[in-house]
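WARN no homologs supplied; continuing
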Amino acid sequence: MTDSLRISKEGVKRRMDSGEGIVFIDVRNPGPWEQSARKIQGAMRIGLKELDQRLGSIPKEKPVVTYCT
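OK structure emitted
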């Protein structure tokens, strides 16, 4: 599939339904993340300010989707 800088939730669902593994990264700050009931199970939580330092911990063999709610 083509790499893209943006993907819709429908696009993510299509890719997941086709069996493609996706790494989800929740980029919300700690406060809003802790207060939210909306979280994707299994998502990595990496705030934008720490993203550069944590790049090495992000799997490279799967597409990555970052999100905030």
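The mean pLDDT is 89.
OK
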